Amino acid sequence: MARRTLTPRTLRLDLFSRFSRLICGLAGLRTHTNKGVGAAGRPAAEKQNKEPRRTPGTWRERNGACAEPMFWVQCVGARQAYGLHARTESLRAVVFEQYQKARTQFVQTVAELATRPQNIETLQNAGVMSLLRPLLLDVVPTIQQTSALALGRLANYNDDLAEAVVKGDILPQLVYSLAEQNRFYKKAAAFVLRAVAKHSSQLAQAIVDCGAVDTLVVCLEDFDPGVKEAAAWALGYIARHNAELSQAVVDAGAVPLLVLCIQEPEIALKRIAASTLSDLSKHSPELAQTVVDAGAIAHLAQMILNPDAKLKRQVLSALSQISKHSVDLAEMVVEAEIFPVVLTCLKDTDEYVKKNSATLIREIARHTPELSQLIVNAGGVAAVIDYIGNCTGNVRLPGIMMLGYVAAHSDTLAMAVIVSKGVPQLAICLSEEAEDHIKAAAAWSLGQIGRHTPEHARAVAVANVLAKLLSLYMDTDSSEDLQVKVLPHDSKARRLFVTSGGLKKIQEIAADPGSPLQEYINNINNCYPEEIVRYYSPGYSQTLLERVEHYQPVI
Q1: Its Gene Ontology molecular function terms (predicted)?
Q2: Which of 194, 213, 256, 329 is the most core-located residue (most Cβ within 10 A)?
Q3: Cβ–Cβ under 8 Å, residues 36 and 57
């Protein structure tokens, strides 16, 4: 065999041949054309008919190589191996892309279906909760967020689905992800927590037990206003149930951060933060004092005249919840100079703003004569009377009760209500309103106005209120509470009923024995001594004169 001459060109070709064989070996492919099927999917017989063209005078022939050169066959095998690898990678990419699209479409469809109540039962029966749970930890952020949104919408529908979220151990996943994920997921997770907490104190307690409150408080420090809003909203729904849950929110350090939130420029965040402060304050004086100590009153008072009606609702509600607990808290609210600014809210176009404003005035007036006198001096009584005349239904109720609280403190304050023409307005409420609890409040307020002196009682009687009170008392459709308010069981009210002529008027009614009307008259008469009833009965004076005539003096 002739010795091969090694040149740079032959060295390069030899290295290339070795490299090709290395590629074929790594690919695990057989390069011999007489076995199996080719890399391109053609049978070996076809490949034998289409062998690579070899040019005479190649380096192997020139150097006397006696073996069949496999160089070009190996090159073809290498190219085929590379093509197979590329197609495998492409196929894998397509499969994963389709899987991701399917997951995305699933969670989006479920989230969309959950917006319509008629679909909820079907989704629940299909076990959608267990299908959504693993998607909360999906590698794709969009799928995580949409699955959380779907869970929130389902849990928001009823307490059974909310309880399914708790029993399915979904809350720990949400709490973990709430601290780690992006702002979109945080908002969706906070929505789920809020949807679960809204239904009952037990479900809200489950959220507290899984450590969600601390994580939500951390979210109050987030840079994104939407995350702060979602976290504050969830905390409010937890706190509104009872004092224990509110205390858990306070202990987590939420109050100072909520006070900072009401100072943010975003109106939506201000609304939710004020609402949460209101929910925290309503349960006990201690919780309300915590809110006050954080400096909330000054910031809330500044927003009373904000043009946004929904914000004013929450601000007035928060101030009223703080004021109701004690004289000291009410005085602190008054010291924030809310009068006479708050009186302008009684003329607001939004009914809830008017109602919450009247509620705030009522909660301040009920504590002491001094606070009531301050309201009278600011023109509050006249403003409330106008407010009662311009609205109907439950919106009237806090204003009606406010007049009663003011009048109850002293005869001077009661006379201020009379001078401001409060009695005729209360009489209108007594006649117009359909709800018994509103009529009962009006009757109670009229009793507080007229109970002080005969002059006060006369002012009530002149407004033709007594006849209406009597008809309401004898009405079989009237509630027991209304009847009690009409003739309450206390000495001052019984005295007022006598001095105003009501008892005498009842004795003049001619009722058939055994009739329901006679039973009502007897019930009223049983509230008084027998001699008083006889004294005001028709003809009693004549009976006394006859006894005088027939009396035989003892000498």
Answers
A1: microtubule binding
A2: 213
A3: no
And the tokens for 19?
């490299």
Give the mean pLDDT of 323-335.
Answer: 94
Do 321 and 311 contact (CB within 8 A), yes or no? Answer: no
Quote the pTM value: 0.71
Cβ neighbors of 342 (< 8 A, separation 6 or more) are: 304, 316, 357, 360, 361
- Only one residue has tokens 């029993």, namely 167
Name residue 43's beta-bridge partners.
37
Question: How many whole angstroms from its chain centre is CA 269?
Answer: 13
d(CA 297, CA 332) in angstroms, rounded, equals 8
Residue 510 to residues 17, 538, 540, Cα–Cα distance (Å): 129, 11, 15
Judge contact between 159 and 124, C-beta under 8 A. no
Tens digit of each residue's pLDDT (9 = 90 or more) over 78-120? 555 556 666 666 777 777 888 888 888 888 898 899 888 888 8
Long-range contacts of residues 509-512, Cβ cutoff 8 Å, at least 24 apart: none
User: Binning pLDDT at 50, 70 and 90, where does residue 514 land?
Assistant: confident
Residue 67 confidence (pLDDT)? 43
How many CA atoms are closer than 13 Å to the CA of 297, on its beta-carbon side?
A: 20
DSSP 503-544: HHHHHT----TTSHHHHHHHHHHTTS-HHHHHHTSTTHHHHH
Measured from the Cβ of residue 479, the count of other Cβ atoms closer than 10 Å reads 15
The answer to whether 396 and 388 have CB atoms below 8 angstroms apart is yes
DSSP result, 51-79: PPP--TT-HHHHTT--SPP-HHHHHHHHH
How far apart CA 310 and CA 271 sit, in angstroms, is 7
Judged by DSSP in three states, 37 sits in strand
- Predicted confidence at residue 480, as pLDDT, reads 59
What gap in Å lies between CA 24 and CA 35, rounded to an integer?
15
Distance CA(426)–CA(381), nearest Å, equals: 13
Q: How many CB atoms lie within 10 A of CB 144?
A: 23
Both tokens of 286, joined, read 């201690």
544/95 Cα distance (integer angstroms):
109
Tell me the residue type at 210. Answer: C
Sign of CA dihedral 46, 49, 54, 60: positive
Q: Which amino acid is at 114?
A: A
Quick check: 36 and 28 in contact, CB under 8 A?
no
| Rounded (10°) angle between helices 436-450 and 422-432 | 150
CA distance 332 to 161: 43
Cis before 225? omega within 30 = no
Please, is 554 exposed, middle or buried when counting C-beta atoms within 10 Å of its C-beta (0-12, 13-18, 19+)? exposed
Report which DSSP code applies to 395.
G
